[in-house]
Design a protein that fits this description.
Elements: E1 14-20, E2 24-31, E3 36-43, E4 47-48, E5 54-56, H1 58-75, E6 83-90, E7 96-98, E8 108-109, H2 117-126, H3 129-138, H4 149-159, H5 161-166, E9 169-171, H6 173-182, E10 186-187, E11 198-199, E12 207-208, H7 210-216, E13 225-226, E14 232-235, H8 238-244, E15 251-253, E16 256-257, H9 258-265, E17 273-278, E18 282-285, E19 287-288, E20 293-294, E21 299-303, E22 310-314, H10 320-331, E23 334-335, E24 338-339, H11 349-354, E25 364-366, E26 384-386, H12 394-420, E27 426-430, H13 437-447, E28 451-454, H14 460-472, E29 487-491, H15 498-514
Parallel strand pairs: 1-6, 6-15, 6-16, 10-13, 17-27, 27-28
Antiparallel strand pairs: 1-2, 2-3, 4-5, 5-8, 7-9, 11-12, 14-15, 17-18, 19-22, 20-21, 21-22, 23-24, 25-26, 28-29
Helix pairs in contact: 3-7, 9-14, 10-12, 12-13, 12-15
Length: 528
C-alpha cells in the first residue's frame, strides 16, 4: 500500500498532524503505517459571557501549538529530521480575522457564539432567495442561530468595523494555523464550508458562489485565497522551522476540518463501515459520492478533500459531555450535600458498568441536555432519567448513561443509511469514549452490529490528517487505509440482549415524542 521509493533501512518519514479542538490542541508525529510515534496535548481557555460571547485568543492557540509541537518532537529521538509535511485540522464554524501574513487581528469567534443570531435572521428575511441557493448549491442553509461562520463574518463587519477594515481576510481555525505556519492566507472549499459562500455541487472542485456572495452582503475583498484541497500552501517558514527544530523544506498542506479527519482516521471513506466519534458530541461519519441532504433529520454533506466525494455531516448531540455531567455533576459531585469527588471520575467506569446488567434495570437516560440534534432537531428537549425504582443503583445510572448515547446513535442509523444509500455493517469507534471497553460492547449490542474499537482513540483525527498528507505525498493508497487501523478490541452484538435493547430503543424514541409538552420553553417554561 506504500507508494514511492522508501528505503526500508532508513527511518520512515513522519507527518506532523495538528488537531485543534474547542478545549485543546494536539500535535502528533505519525508514520506511514499510521502509528503515532509521539504526541502532546495542551488545553485552550475559552471566554464565555452571558451575552452569547464564545471566544478564544488566537495568539494563545498559536503559543500552545508551539509548545505541543516541541513536546511531541522531544518524545521521539530523531523525529525532527523525519518530518516531511504538516497538515492542520480543527473544529469549524468558527472565524478569526487575520492580516496578510496570517496574524490575528481579533478574537477567534467560536461556533458556540450566538451574538450574530439577529443579524443572521435579518439576512434571510431580507434575502429569502438565499435559502434556495444554499439548498441547491451549498448544501447547508443558515440555522439563524448565529453559530455559522457567515454569521460571525457579518458580526465583525457590522459590530467591529475597525477590525473589519484592518482585516486582510477571515479564515477558519485550521486555515489560521496553516497561514501562520506557511505565511500565506488560504482556504479550500472543504474548510470554507461553514461560511456558506461556496458552490459545493462538484465537491472539492467547487468554488465561491457569486450569487450567494452577492445576496449575503459580505465584503468580497475579505475573502481568503481559495486553493485546491490538496495544495501545498508553502514551506514551513524558516523562523518556525528554527523554533521547532525542524529541517528546512517541510511542506505545509491545505487544511481539513475535524469531521473530515475523523472520516479518514476511521477508514470510513472505504467500504460500508461507519466511523463513530464519541467525544463531547456524538458524530457518525462516512463518504458519499454526491451532495445530498435530509434537513428534516438534520443530516447533510460537505465536500470531501478528495475528488468526487462528500462527507456525511451528522451531529447526534451531547455524548461524552452527557456522561461527564452524570459522573462529575451527579455521582461524584461536590456541593452542599458533601464532597464526593474522585481524582479520576472515569477510573472505575468499566468495572462499575460491568457489574450491572444490560438494560440498567429498565432505566432510560435521555442525553438531550442541550436539546436533540439529529435525527429530530429540537432545541427545547432536555435530558433525564426515566423508570427509576427503589432498586435503582448509582451503577444503573452510569450504565444507563452509556446506553442512552448508544440509543441516540441507533435512532440516527436508519436515517443515516437512507441518506448514504447503504447499510453500514461495521462501526469504527473513536475519540475519548472509545477508551471504554464497556461502551464499545454497549454500542455493539444496542446497534446490533460489530464494533471495532480503535487503539489510542483520541489520536484518531491526527492519524486521519496524516493519512491524507501521506496520500498527497504519494506514499499511501487511501483505498487500503483500513489496513492501518490499529484496534484495541473488537466487539460482536450479543443475541441474548437483542430483544431487550430493541424494546428499550423504541421506548427511547417514544420518550421524545411524548415528552414534548413537558420540556421547558414550549409553554413558557425554562428553556435551559
Amino acid at each position: 500500500m506504500l507508494h514511492g521509493s522508501v528505503n526500508p533501512l532508513s527511518p520512515s518519514p513522519l507527518v506532523l498532524a495538528i488537531d485543534l479542538g474547542t478545549s485543546g490542541i494536539r500535535a502528533a508525529c505519525v508514520d506511514v503505517a499510521g502509528r503515532a510515534v509521539a504526541s502532546a496535548t495542551e488545553s485552550i481557555p475559552m471566554r464565555l459571557l452571558a451575552d452569547g460571547t464564545a471566544e478564544e485568543d488566537p495568539e494563545a492557540i498559536w503559543s500552545a501549538l508551539g509548545r505541543t509541537i516541541a513536546r511531541a518532537l522531544a518524545q521521539a529521538p530523531g523525529a525532527r529530521d523525519r518530518v516531511e509535511a504538516i497538515l492542520c485540522g480543527s473544529q469549524y464554524s468558527s472565524l478569526v480575522p487575520v492580516d496578510a501574513c496570517g496574524r490575528p487581528l481579533g478574537p477567534l469567534v467560536l461556533y458556540l457564539d450566538t451574538r450574530a443570531a439577529a443579524l443572521s435572521r435579518d439576512l434571510t428575511r431580507r434575502r429569502p432567495e438565499l435559502w434556495k441557493l444554499w439548498l441547491e448549491r451549498h448544501g447547508m442553509p443558515s440555522a439563524g442561530s448565529g453559530s455559522d461562520s457567515l454569521a460571525h463574518w457579518l458580526w465583525f463587519q457590522t459590530e467591529r468595523p475597525e477590525i473589519h477594515a484592518a482585516a486582510h481576510a477571515y479564515v477558519e481555525p485550521m486555515d489560521y494555523l496553516t497561514a501562520r505556519l506557511a505565511g500565506r492566507v488560504t482556504t479550500n472549499v472543504c474548510t470554507a464550508f461553514p461560511m456558506l459562500l461556496t458552490d459545493n455541487r462538484r465537491g472539492a472542485a467547487g468554488g465561491w458562489c457569486d450569487e450567494i456572495l452577492a445576496a449575503s452582503g459580505v465584503d468580497r475583498d475579505k475573502l481568503p485565497e481559495l486553493v485546491a484541497p490538496d495544495t501545498v500552501v508553502g514551506e514551513l517558514l524558516p523562523e518556525h522551522a528554527k523554533s521547532f527544530g525542524l529541517p528546512r523544506g517541510v511542506r505545509v498542506f491545505s487544511a481539513i476540518n475535524d469531521t473530515q479527519a475523523l472520516t479518514f482516521g476511521t477508514a470510513s471513506h472505504v467500504g460500508d463501515r461507519l466511523g463513530v466519534s464519541i467525544g463531547t458530541t456524538l458524530v457518525p461519519t462516512t463518504l458519499v459520492d454526491s451532495m445530498r441532504a435530509d434537513l428534516r433529520h438534520f443530516l447533510l454533506t460537505q465536500p470531501a478533500p478528495i475528488p468526487d466525494r462528500h462527507v456525511l455531516m451528522a451531529e447526534g448531540g451531547l455524548a461524552g459531555k452527557a456522561l461527564e455531567f452524570v459522573l462529575e455533576g451527579l455521582i461524584h459531585a461536590n456541593d452542599g450535600l458533601g464532597d464526593h469527588r474522585r481524582e479520576n471520575a472515569y477510573a472505575a467506569l468499566d468495572a462499575v458498568v460491568g457489574a450491572t446488567q444490560p438494560g440498567a434495570g429498565g432505566v432510560l437516560f435521555l442525553p438531550w441536555l442541550t436539546g436533540v440534534w439529529s435525527p429530530a432537531p429540537d432545541n427545547h428537549a432536555r435530558g433525564g432519567f426515566l423508570n427509576l425504582g427503589l432498586g435503582t443503583t448509582r451503577a444503573d445510572l452510569v450504565r444507563a448513561s452509556l446506553e442512552g448515547v448508544a440509543f441516540q446513535l441507533r435512532w440516527m442509523l436508519p436515517h443515516v443509511e437512507a441518506l448514504t444509500g447503504r447499510r453500514h455493517d461495521e462501526l469504527v469507534f473513536a475519540a475519548g469514549g472509545a477508551r471504554s471497553d464497556a461502551w464499545a460492547q454497549i454500542l455493539a449490542d444496542v446497534c446490533d452490529r460489530p464494533v471495532r474499537q480503535l487503539a489510542d482513540p483520541t489520536l484518531t483525527n491526527c492519524r486521519g490528517a496524516a493519512l491524507l498528507a501521506f496520500h498527497r505525498l504519494g506514499r499511501v493508497d487511501l483505498g487500503a487505509a483500513s489496513e492501518l487501523l490499529v484496534e484495541r478490541g473488537r466487539y460482536e452484538p450479543r443475541a441474548a440482549y437483542r430483544a431487550r435493547y430493541e424494546d428499550m430503543a423504541g421506548r427511547f424514541v417514544l420518550a421524545h415524542e411524548r415528552l414534548g409538552p413537558v420540556f421547558g420553553g414550549r409553554e413558557g417554561g425554562n428553556d435551559g
